[in-house]
Write a structure and sequence with these properties.
Elements (H helix, E strand, L loop, with lengths): L1 H30 L50 E3 L6 H8 L3 H7 L13 E3 L63 E3 L10 E4 L5 E3 L4 E7 L7 E6 L4 E11 L6 E2 L4 E5 L8 E8 L2 E3 L9
Antiparallel strand pairs: 1-2, 3-4, 4-11, 5-10, 6-7, 6-9, 7-8, 8-10, 8-11, 11-12
Helix pairs in contact: 2-3
């Protein structure tokens, strides 16, 4: 009897334990909210972490706007006498390509800092036009002298004035007639080739060889601020022509200095170049032209 009761008690205890276990599992399941995951600590074993889900935007959602360009729109852009700044431009480069001194361009455009120009900005690259003041025209005087009677012969006409001289006044030499001289004595390494973007002549030599001014003029740049040219000198000869002398080792002249044809202005070098040479350009109104067409035959 006692043994039967003991067996029955054990059976009841097992049933109760099973009920408790099932209840606890139910509570755990109910406490877990769908879609909420426990935080994962990243310790370098990311292969055990599940990939993040990509949530698609609802249909009809507008696409994000494209980035807004920082370039400005200048009302003078495209007008004659203006240059519109592009990516990578500097005032020195603009001066070389427009045939002007970068300092003059800065002055014409009232630039307080020549190093600060903006893409899209239109810069005046020709001298400002001088205002023309119209002079008042004096009214013609009316003679009060009575006209002679119609039947009275008029006084003999004065002798005809002497014919105008056919002699043409002397004309100043054309600005195209500059007699350029060779800026260095070395051999020609590379010639001008517009199709290959060769903007001048490459003249070989040794470090320290003399670099000479090709004609009289004024130094408008002498520094190393233009990429690809190294230590550079730019000379303005007149309103048409500039010459450029690049890759120098030493510069012997300064900006605003007047120079004479054949004057030593620099020493040849290899700054910003893979070898010692002089890169020489002739520019007419800022456009590179073939220097060999302007230099005397050797």
């Amino acid at each position: 009897m006692n043994m039967g009761m003991d067996a029955m008690a054990k059976s009841m205890l097992r049933s109760a334990a099973a009920v408790v276990a099932i209840g606890m599992l139910g509570l755990v399941a109910c406490s877990s909210k769908p879609g909420v995951r426990a935080p994962v600590e990243d310790i370098g074993h990311t292969k055990h972490a599940s990939a993040p889900r990509v949530t698609e935007a609802p249909k009809g959602t507008p696409a994000p706007a494209a980035p807004v360009s920082t370039a400005i729109v200048d009302p003078n852009s495209g007008k004659p006498g203006y240059y519109t700044v592009k990516q990578g431009d500097t005032l020195i480069k603009i001066g070389l390509e427009s045939g002007q001194s970068y300092r003059e361009i800065a002055r014409w455009n009232a630039l307080e800092n020549p190093n600060r120009i903006e893409i899209g900005q239109a810069l005046r690259v020709v001298p400002p036009e001088e205002a023309v003041v119209a002079k008042p025209v004096a009214p013609a005087k009316v003679s009060s002298t009575a006209l002679p009677p119609a039947n009275v012969a008029s006084a003999p006409a004065k002798a005809a004035s002497a014919p105008a001289s056919t002699t043409t006044p002397a004309v100043s030499a054309s600005e195209d007639d500059i007699a350029f001289a060779w800026p260095a004595k070395g051999e020609i390494l590379d010639g001008f080739d517009e199709s290959k973007n060769r903007k001048g002549l490459d003249i070989g030599g040794s470090n320290g060889d003399a670099v000479l001014a090709a004609a009289d003029g004024k130094v408008v740049y002498a520094d190393a601020g233009l990429r690809g040219y190294g230590k550079l000198i730019i000379i303005k000869h007149n309103s048409q022509f500039l010459t450029a002398y690049a890759h120098n080792q030493t510069l012997l002249v300064k900006e605003d200095q007047a120079v004479k044809k054949g004057q030593k202005i620099a020493e040849m070098g290899n700054t910003d170049s893979d070898r010692t040479k002089l890169h020489f350009e002739v520019r007419k109104q800022g456009k590179p032209v073939d220097p060999s067409k302007y230099l005397p035959a050797r």
